[in-house]
Amino acid sequence: MSTPRTLFDKLWDAHLVAPESPEAPAILYIDLHLIHEVTSPQAFAELRARGLRPRRVERTKATMDHSTPTLPAGPDGVPPYVDAAARTQVETLATHCAEHGIELFDPGAEAHGIVHVIAPELGLTQPGMTIVCGDSHTSTHGAFGALAFGIGTSEVGHVLATQCLLQRKPKTMAVNIEGRLAPGVSAKDVILHVIGRIGVNGGTGHVIEYRGGAVRAMDMEARMTLCNMSIEAGARAGMVAPDQITFDWLANTPRAPKGEAFERAKREWMRLSTDDGAHFDTVVEIDAADIAPTVTWGTHPGTAIAVDAAVPANDDPAATKARDYMRARAGQPMAGMTVDVVFVGSCTNGRLSDLRAVAEVLGTRRVAPGVRMLVVPGSAEVKRAAEAEGIDAIVRAAGAEWREPGCSMCIGMNGDTVAPGQLAVSTSNRNFEGRQGKGARTVLASPALAAWAAVAGRIVDPRVAAREVAA
Ligand SMILES: CC(C)[C@H](C(=O)O)[C@@H](O)C(=O)O
Ligand code: SF4
């Protein structure tokens, strides 16, 4: 009998061009290379300087998302870029794609939006693949049982030129989430809880496999939310073994194999799970029943606590600094904090199920006076599907802004920013100082919690809010 292997081991072995040695990292074959406007310009410049051309253009797909405006183009047809640099960045990618024959999903295309939203919905992301992108949240694609991770700009150039990547073999971590999630607890609460437990460096050097009954019960969008934030725990990648839920999703995507080819692929995909008895370097056990609606109090995602908890009172310098920046008092309950902005969107929570959760809370309610709420679908497809259900109408009637797809206020590169000192409840993945704008204070949360915060004008426990409404 051969040694039992983890899902990660199987993917690693299947893509190994040359194993690692003490002198050199392993060489891995890359099945899908996603590129966007922020981390590709220097890579293309490097190629040109060396007289090289992309090796496998059909395995390279491009999109624009970070610097693209979320307001429609003016009468001149030019999108309202925040500045000339943003426009140049976007136009440079278009030029590079045209020059090399790389398929580009630009705002003019039917399919466009955030790279980690469009690749799965197109079916470009498939189980068993190695997927890289010059973007840390590439871990999202691991939800399909792919080995997917972010790479640096010089590596983008390397992959463009060779379709291969130099990598040291990471360690493996199992995060077992057993039991059932309580009502009102979503995948976002789960991943915030996990990061709160293991810390922002807890996954360093590891590839995480999320396992257990609570994960198996999640739909694909929830699994993507889970894998998306693996990087915020320091992990190289996150993954979930593919199953019938994965195959059903893929069957409805335009680029997945069709007919007999799909059945053949599915037979291969079904082998992509961790063998019984396979060894993980690190194992973390989580009881799903322990997970509450979760928020962050500080300036990194590891500061996740239950929404009914209080800002910790520990007096180490980092905590003091974070409390000062957040203008939060030690011992202050999270619930009740005044909210200025609510952002719903990003590659973490900008999918249809997320917008449905928001619409369900909003219903016929209105955003509290003085609160600005921005709802940004993750892709054109998400936007179309949401509009077909009337979600845009609910959002607008509530007094919130309904935008074009893109990264938007997750990172603020396109001009959608939070003003200095304002507190934003955000469904995105990073609450670093200045992330959403200079001096902006970010509280990470699920879509449902964000929507309740918009309605109340303060942070509220969605369980309490739902109970009060029902009473
Ligand atoms: C701009 C890009 C390189 C960056 C990343 O790598 O993740 C961004 O997407 C982010 O979320 O901070
Ligand atoms: S939505 Fe946010 S996290 Fe995702 S790729 Fe864009 S900037 Fe990065």
From TrEMBL:
**Which amino acids does the record list as binding [4Fe-4S] cluster?**
C347, C407, C410
According to the record, cofactor stoichiometry and binding are noted as: Binds 1 [4Fe-4S] cluster per subunit.
Obligatory cofactor(s): [4Fe-4S] cluster
Pathway where this protein functions:
Amino-acid biosynthesis; L-leucine biosynthesis; L-leucine from 3-methyl-2-oxobutanoate: step 2/4
EC number in record = 4.2.1.33
GO biological process terms, alphabetically, are:
L-leucine biosynthetic process
**Could you tell me one molecular function GO term of this UniProt entry?**
4 iron, 4 sulfur cluster binding
InterPro entries the record matches: 3-IsopropMal_deHydase_lsu (IPR004430), Acnase/IPM_dHydase_lsu_aba_1/3 (IPR015931), Acoase/IPM_deHydtase_lsu_aba (IPR001030), Aconitase_4Fe-4S_BS (IPR018136), Aconitase_4Fe-4S_dom (IPR036008), IPM_dehydratase_rel_enz (IPR050067), IPMI_cat (IPR033941)
Catalysed reaction per UniProt? Answer: (2R,3S)-3-isopropylmalate = (2S)-2-isopropylmalate
Signal sequence span is none
Q: Which UniProt keywords apply?
A: 4Fe-4S, Amino-acid biosynthesis, Branched-chain amino acid biosynthesis, Iron, Iron-sulfur, Leucine biosynthesis, Lyase, Metal-binding
Q: Which Pfam families match?
A: Aconitase (PF00330)
Q: Residues in domain Aconitase/3-isopropylmalate dehydratase large subunit alpha/beta/alpha?
A: 9-457
* Family under the similarity heading: Belongs to the aconitase/IPM isomerase family. LeuC type 1 subfamily.
Q: Tell me, how does this one assemble?
A: Heterodimer of LeuC and LeuD.
Function, as annotated, reads: Catalyzes the isomerization between 2-isopropylmalate and 3-isopropylmalate, via the formation of 2-isopropylmaleate.
What's the protein here called?
3-isopropylmalate dehydratase large subunit
Organism placement in taxonomy: Bacteria, Pseudomonadati, Pseudomonadota, Gammaproteobacteria, Lysobacterales
